[in-house]
Amino acid sequence: LGLYLGIFDRKLRYFTADGQLVPTPQEAELQQRQAKEQALLAKEQALLAKEQALLEKEQALLEKERERQAKEKLAQKLRELGIDPDTI
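Above: the chain sequence. Below: its structure as tokens.
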């Protein structure tokens, strides 16, 4: 197997030929669980970023619509005063 025994943290542990500590089954399970949690968090962050982008886009559209309505209201008021807004 190419494993060697050594002392780590005052415990007898297995090491690979290049000196890497071989994780215990509990450590390996913990590492897998943490990797899954990190992947899930990365997915959640990506979804949140997409939602944020959509919200910003929607907000920009709403702002454009408000501006359009304000311009239309102003144009209507000018027409009421007998002024053609297209000639100004």
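The mean pLDDT is 97.
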